[in-house]
Write a structure and sequence with these properties.
The chain is mainly alpha-helical and 102 residues long. It has 5 helices and no strands. The protein has one domain. 66% of the residues lie in helices and 0% in strands. The protein starts with 5 loop residues before the first helix and ends with a helix.
């Protein structure tokens, strides 16, 4: 695992918050009206750790599935619409691009 500075952690966390808020699996529309901007903050640390550790797509997707199924209790018929594997790919591509820019 690479060591991140506090500044990097803060930057990545802010970017991940934006990504999670855009994905918005609960449909709370963070930042719109009363939609809380920190709705998904509980998942940012683990998301960042998976990316920093270079975990493969299936593990990142497994975490996202765990969150939406076990934690958020989203019904099976909505999971396909959320496309957790696609979101995992987007997160991994974003983090790879961040590493290339560093």
């Amino acid at each position: 695992m690479m060591a991140l500075s506090e500044q990097q952690i803060e930057h990545y966390t802010d970017e991940l918050r934006t990504a999670w808020n855009q994905w918005d699996p609960l449909g709370v529309e963070p930042g719109v009206g009363d939609g809380p901007l920190d709705e998904y903050d509980a998942y940012l640390g683990t998301t960042l750790a998976l990316l920093v550790d270079g975990k493969p797509l299936d593990e990142v997707t497994e975490f996202l599935n765990f969150v939406i199924v076990d934690q958020m209790e989203i019904e099976d018929e909505y999971i396909a619409e959320l496309q957790p594997e696609k979101f995992a790919q987007q997160l991994m591509a974003w983090f790879a691009a961040q590493q290339g820019a560093a």
